[in-house]
Amino acid sequence: MTRFIFVTGGVVSSLGKGIATASIGRLLRSRGLNVRLQKLDPYINVDADTMNPFQHGEAFVTDDGAVTDLDLGHYERFTNIALTRHSSVTTGSVYRDVIAAERRGDYDGATVQTIPHVTNAIKDRIRLVAKTGKNERKVDVVVAEVGGTVGDIEGLPFLEAIRQMRADVGLRNVMYIHVTLVPGVGPWDEQKTKPTQHSVIKLREIGIHPDMLICRSKRQMSDDMLRKISLFCDVPVCAVIPSVDTSTVYDVPLKLEVAGVAEQIVKRFGLRCDPPDLDAWQRIVRRITSNTRRVHVAVVGKYVDNSDAYISIREALHHAAAAADCNVMITWVNSRGLRSSDIAKAVNGANAMVVAPGFGVDGIEGKLHAVQHARVTGLPFLGICLGMQMAVVEFARNVAGIPDAESGEVDPATPNPVVHIMPEQRLRGNRGGTMRLGSRECQLAANSLASRLYGVETIRERHRHRYEVNNDYRARLIGAGMDCSGTSPDGKFVEIVEIPGHPFFIGCQFHPEFQSRPDLPHPLFVGLVKAALDRAEREAAGDAGRTHTAAAPADGVSNV
Ligand code: GLN
Prior knowledge:
The protein is of the alpha/beta class.
């Protein structure tokens, strides 16, 4: 019998419900339990594909090509379980299923209603994530997070569905965990329990009585406060879990472990499992928090005003830094309006640069300037997706002698589309769900930087893009000194480019950041951070930039 934990949130959004859910997943997994995680998102979008990163932060991509909420990134990073599309449920996708069923006549003429049809469809999706194949081990626990905040209108069908689950699978097999805020107010920053009380009242109005409260606060809460919350919210005091801000999110599982969260879950469900094994995790947290060596990486992108827009890149840099025994300081550089003359100042002495993924024309010129700066000055460089495409355009213009080279995304009528829309994407009209998505195989060229970093010949990485390096220009790029060191197995798609002779210059059409884990840092990010450390050391010794020989410009083309 699979057990279900439902995580809800109250008071305000951005409380770290996703981190709490991911942490619970980690703690159960560290006891040898088979865990599945799921996000129930009340928004009406079918998936996160068309959502604006300025508003909603990063869209995370699973192996099977689902474009999901960024919380799935936390789930994967904390548990190291590769999730599938079944782990992401939105109102839009539920209604799509319900309407399709109605059109097929599955409801036998019934009036289709929120209860039971929509709630049943939601429960089907929750059960689906617990399904396993014939020879697979059964799922012990599903941890499902309901997005948004209790009280949101669009969240009601989801809350009703998880309420019904209690009757469907039995009280002893369901647990409700509510994450709330205990704010400090006034000149003495007095901690207040009232918002928590009200949000629990709201939850109880819907028929859900929380079994555990995770109370987020800026500073420690007194035992009196915890007892007060226990009394007013009718939750045993041992299940009122204080959760104070930590310096790294990876510390949260350890804190929740000490607070007894997993023990209580295991006891409540009567699960038989191993003692927790968190040694490796503890070592990672120690490495992340205690390093004194530091590298400085500039990340250039246009969504930098939303700190969550590049969350997987940020985390991947931290994982890599921990592996390279240092800390990373990130300077976020807005590519919008970024002029060539501003770059040196904007990157602010960074030891490496990442040019981030993105969509649309806005901020693209700034990315080109950034790439050029990295190439010319020998600054270690990693270009991801659009960042890689800009590396190709920049190289074509300034090294390969194609001054009007352009991406078809910027100018569909350009005479020299070195990056162009893939023929199969051209035929698909819609915007949502029509990109080259999900995990693909890639073959690495022997003796390339990529093959040295990965240490294997074949890799699998996750994609999300419409545009691609135009093969008509491949020979010219290679002739001018750019290596296409990673291609699809059929050789049709360029997946990785690099510039031999540069200390570290690599661009990838895929998103390596989605597969980086604290305990499995991604080779491309580790390579970048190590190259940054090298550069920092050489800079300290006073000779950075002197040793590299970037590809020579083609005749008559200025390098700057
Ligand atoms: N806009 C580019 C494309 O569609 C790059 C996408 C990305 O960076 N994820 O190909």
